[in-house]
Design brief:
Blueprint: H1 6-16, E1 21-22, E2 25-35, H2 41-61, E3 65-74, H3 79-91, E4 97-98, H4 103-116, E5 120-122, E6 141-146, H5 148-161, E7 168-171, H6 174-178, H7 181-185, E8 195-198, H8 206-214, E9 219-223, H9 226-238, E10 247-250, E11 269-274, H10 281-296, H11 310-330, H12 353-362, E12 365-367, E13 370-374, E14 379-382, E15 385-391, E16 395-403, E17 407-410, H13 414-425, E18 429-434, E19 442-443, E20 458-459, H14 461-473, E21 476-481, E22 490-491, E23 496-497, H15 499-505, E24 511-512, H16 520-523, E25 526-528, E26 533-535, E27 537-542, H17 560-583, H18 607-618, H19 630-659, H20 670-675, E28 680-682, H21 688-695, H22 699-710, H23 720-729, E29 734-739, H24 740-747, E30 753-756, E31 763-765, E32 768-770, H25 776-788, H26 791-802, H27 808-822, H28 825-861, H29 865-877, H30 894-927
Parallel strand pairs: 2-3, 2-4, 4-5, 5-6, 6-14, 7-8, 7-9, 9-10, 10-11, 18-21, 18-24, 28-29
Antiparallel strand pairs: 1-2, 11-15, 12-13, 13-14, 15-16, 16-17, 19-20, 22-23, 25-32, 26-31, 27-29, 27-30
Organism: Anopheles sinensis
GO molecular function: glutamate-gated receptor activity
Membrane topology: Multi-pass membrane protein
């Protein structure tokens, strides 16, 4: 044996020493620990490939050093062997240790690395310790997996964006439940309860899924191992848990690697999260390295970028960022590996370890998994997530991204979402639930021999509304009636819904269309489209009973007291005028003004003239004779002013009074109802109107609710029709509170009913559907389009004003208004009766006066009464004769008779002329005409 030369010894020493130089490069060993067991062998194999070929790519570009991988394998739960393998790697001079993927074993490796100050790089989920992070214990650990709290916040943001108020969590390990910490914390006491269900090793998940289905839950979060996800969803499909309005969120970042081919055509929404962009150049390049490297080793390997596991991508990025740290620090100071011992009494630490870790914490890199940024504790707090959704055509498809700064940000436009939804509606058949209630939906009347089936059985506003929407969006529909006929209210005792809302929650219908009011309580259980009709609560009441027309109703504008006071005033003023005129010297005058030496004066103001003056004043006609004294003129003027005011008031109130209908009882608003107890009032039981009063904080409505709740018998009805009938039969002792649209429909056809007051609130009718329905936006858009085109207005006009007797009451009220405005004979007939009686009395008085004059003539002319009657009648019937002779003797000749007549006529005319002059003078005295210089002639 030849002795070794110095050069040979040095070469051998170099080969046995860490950091040896090979072909001009210094070797820097890095260690890795992978798990090997039946459950994780495939995962570890892909991760090991990523680790090795990432090192190979780094070495291809580095000129100064070469990374040398040293790999060890342990069982996932073998902590003793894990510690021993870690110490072996330290003894071989590794500059960093990657892995393993178990929380238990990784903790042991981290403890050893912390003691020896060797960088420890992990790529799995690592929760924060119960006592909080101790910086000294985490000083040498770098974790590329998203930080636990930040990842939990990403899931919470997604749930909040989806507006999930309630959901069920299915998990398999305690670690999985810890990952959902932030999700559990977003739940408020007022929110619906969150259900948490754990699955065991039993592969039959159907009983659990059936329990969830019976609870009515449609939102499920799956926090289970990836190998269980597909099997659980497959069994969910078998028990009808993958239907249209059910949604799943898969928390595993490896969901995109699973085979969902059998589930792609399910109607439910399946959402998952992904840490990498599978279409990026980096991931395609990495997969190419893996396939080419295995091909060189004669080990066929095929993998698409869309199925790269998160752990594999993280190992690739971990090697990349570690190599960058070595490169930067090695340029400043040559990094020399050291062999370290775990059990040495004189424990040595690697001097470069802490500097490498600190540099990695401040270094920002970008890898397959996006930007890589660490906090001071070595946790990856800033990262991007892809939100992916299972589609029928392309498998998982990216729909949004998430980052800690901006939260959820959708990558597809609203137009793309809308187009996708509309496309999915083509040739789809919706089950539309409704209830019978005119005019929204009623049974169509059959013609003789006609058979009605399907949607043809019905007619109404709701049917034509959904038909118009279906034509816009291109879907089919089938109308069904809800069994209990109710709208939908929540029972706080049973904690269950009824009516249309329950039908939607039980997934027995896709839509609910009727006069269903959008309320906050219902909105917590189902979704609504935009309102297709606005309305409010109002009062249905019977019209006032119109009293029979009275013949003397023209007297009614003034009460009996006023008429008595007027009559008293009339008599009193007349007597006062009579007394004052007799006392006043100015009212005593010469009966013959032409005879200045006449010793006698007369007073024309007897009681009859006084009564005539006051009557002429109050009737607005005046009088030929007027008072002369100041006192009498003042009284007459005041009476004339009083008469004018009374006449004006009577005229103004006459028409208004005659057109006014007298009521048995008067209510004009809800306040009027609340203030009285005679008229009862109620609403539909379980409806939104009842809920409005039940939950209102307004004092008036609270009093009304208390009155309704305590009324016996009950004032609540099962339907609007029952409430209408109760109002009709209630003899104006019952009022019904209902929504204005239904009230308007009733009053268009029931002319005995009317609306009292205005609207008590404002709300709308909407089309209901299950929560988070993907079709809400599309259907709301169709409703808006119909509104803009005026079709909704046309539908309402058709079913409210035209169909089935609509508009009849409007015509009746118009005719009634015209009749009332004309003041028919029934209102003012009494005036004609009074006129006729007055004329009859005048005629009788005239006959009596004529007969009295005949008697007087017979005495004066000394003829028989019969001859006098004949002569007077002959003269009265001679219309052409305008003058009447003085009856000296009825036997005289015609000529002498005519002469006598002329003489008598002239005498009378002279007397009348004197009287007229006297009257004129009296009037002139009243009106102060004398001062104007007028004079009267003398005989």
């Amino acid at each position: 044996m030849q002795p070794w030369s110095c050069g040979t010894f040095l070469l051998l020493l170099t080969l046995l020493t860490p950091g040896r130089v090979v072909l001009g490069k210094r070797e820097i060993p890095i260690g890795a620990i992978f798990h090997r067991d039946p459950d994780s062998r495939e995962r570890s194999y892909e991760s090991e490939l990523a680790f090795r070929y990432a090192i190979e790519r780094v070495n291809m570009h580095e000129k100064n050093f070469e990374l040398v991988p040293i790999v060890r394998y342990v069982w996932p739960e073998d902590s003793f062997k894990t510690e021993r393998k870690t110490c072996e790697l330290a003894a071989e001079g590794v500059t960093a240790i990657f892995g393993p993927a178990s929380i238990l074993t990784a903790g042991i490796v981290g403890s050893v690395c912390k003691t020896l100050e060797i960088p420890h790089i992990i790529t799995h989920w690592d929760p924060e310790p119960l006592g909080g992070i101790v910086p000294e214990q985490q000083a040498m650990t770098i974790n590329l997996y998203p930080e636990a709290d930040t990842l939990s916040r990403a899931l919470a943001d997604l749930i909040d964006d989806y507006s999930w108020k309630s959901f069920t969590i299915i998990y398999d390990t305690d670690e999985g439940l810890m990952r959902l910490k932030d999700i559990l914390q977003i739940h408020n006491p007022s929110d619906a309860p969150i259900t948490v269900r754990q699955i065991d090793d039993d592969p039959d998940y159907r009983p659990l899924l059936k329990d969830i289905q019976s609870s009515g839950e449609s939102h499920i979060i799956l926090e289970i191992r990836p190998d269980r996800i597909v099997e659980l969803l497959t069994q969910a499909k078998e028990v009808k848990m993958l239907e249209e309005y059910q949604s799943y969120i898969i928390t595993s970042l490896d969901a995109h690697t699973l085979d969902f081919d059998e589930l792609r055509y399910s109607r439910s929404n399946i959402t998952a999260l992904r840490l990498m962009d599978t279409k990026s150049f980096d991931i395609k390049n990495a997969v190419h390295d893996w396939e080419q490297g295995e091909a060189r080793m004669k080990r066929p390997f095929r993998l698409s970028p869309e199925h790269v596991q998160t752990e594999s991508a993280l190992y690739n990025d971990a090697v990349k960022i570690y190599a960058a740290a070595i490169r930067e620090l090695d340029g400043i100071e040559e990094i020399t590996p050291s062999r370290l011992s775990c059990g040495s009494k004189n424990l040595r630490q690697w001097p470069f370890g802490l500097r490498i870790v600190n540099y990695m914490k401040v270094k920002t890199e970008r890898g397959i998994t996006g930007p890589i940024i660490f906090d001071n504790f070595g946790r990856r707090t800033h990262f991007h997530l892809d939100i992916i959704e299972l589609s029928k055509d392309d498998g998982f498809k990216k729909i949004a991204t998430w980052d800690p700064t901006h939260g959820v940000n959708y990558t597809r436009s609203e137009g793309e979402v809308y187009s996708q939804i509309v496309e999915s509606l083509q040739n789809k058949t919706f089950i539309v639930a409704s209830r019978i209630g005119a005019p929204f939906l009623t049974f169509k009347e059959k013609k003789e021999g006609e058979i009605l089936e399907g949607n043809n059985r019905f007619e109404g506003y709701s049917l034509e509304l959904i038909d118009g929407i279906s034509k816009i969006l291109g879907f089919q529909y089938r109308m069904e009636l809800v069994p209990d006929g109710k709208y939908g209210s929540y029972n706080k005792v049973t904690k269950k819904w009824d009516g249309l809302v329950k039908h939607l929650l039980d997934r027995k219908a896709d839509l609910a269309v009727c006069d269903l009011t959008i309320t906050y309580e219902r909105r917590t259980a189902v979704d609504f489209t935009m309102p297709f009709m606005t309305l409010g609560i109002s009062i249905l009441y019977a019209k006032p009973v119109q009293q029979p027309k009275e013949l003397f109703s023209f007297l009614s504008p003034l009460s009996l007291d006023v008429w008595i006071y007027m009559a008293t005033a009339y008599l009193g003023v007349s007597v006062l005028l009579f007394v004052l005129s007799r006392m006043a010297p100015a009212d005593w005058e010469n009966p013959h003004p032409c005879k200045q030496d006449n010793d006698e004066v007369e007073n024309i103001w007897d009681m009859l003239n006084a009564l005539w003056l006051t009557m002429g004043s109050i009737m607005g006609q005046g009088c030929d004779i007027l008072p002369k004294a100041i006192s009498t003129r003042l009284v007459a003027g005041m009476w004339w002013f009083f008469a004018l005011i009374m006449l004006s008031s009577y005229t103004a109130n006459l028409a208004a009074f005659l057109t006014m209908e007298r009521m048995d009882a008067t209510i004009e608003s809800a306040e009027d109802l609340a203030k009285q107890s005679k008229i009862k009032y109620g609403a539909v039981v379980g409806g939104s109107t009842m809920a409005f009063f039940q939950t209102s904080n307004f004092s008036t409505y609270q009093r009304m609710w208390a009155a309704m709740e305590s009324a016996r018998p009950s004032v609540f009805t099962k339907s609007n029709d029952e409430g209408r009938d109760r109002v009709l039969k209630g003899k104006r002792l019952y009022a019904f509170l209902m929504e204005s649209t239904s009230l308007e429909y009733i009053t268009e056809r029931q002319c005995d009913l009317t609306q009292i007051g205005g609207l008590l609130d404002s709300k709308g009718y909407g089309i209901a559907m299950p929560v988070n329905s993907p079709y809400r936006t599309a259907i709301s858009g169709a409703v808006l389009k119909m509104q803009e085109e005026g079709k909704l207005h046309q539908l309402k006009q058709r079913w409210w004003k035209e169909m089935h007797g609509g508009g009849r009451c409007n015509e009746s009220s118009s005719a009634g208004s015209a009749d009332t405005a004309e003041l028919g004979i029934g209102h003012v007939g009494g005036v004609f009766v009074v006129l006729a009686i007055g004329c009859l009395c005048a005629f009788i008085i005239g006959i009596l006066e004529f007969l009295w004059n005949v008697r007087k003539v017979a005495v004066e002319e000394k003829v028989t009464p019969w001859d006098a009657l004949k002569a007077e009648l002959k003269f009265a019937l001679s219309i052409s004769v305008t003058s009447k002779p003085v009856h000296n003797t009825l036997s005289e000749s015609t000529a002498s008779g005519k002469s006598s007549l002329r003489s008598k006529s002239e005498s009378r005319r002279g007397s009348e002329s004197a009287s007229r002059i006297n009257n004129v003078r009296s009037a002139a005295s009243l009106m102060n005409i004398d001062k104007m210089g007028f004079s009267f002639g003398k005989n």
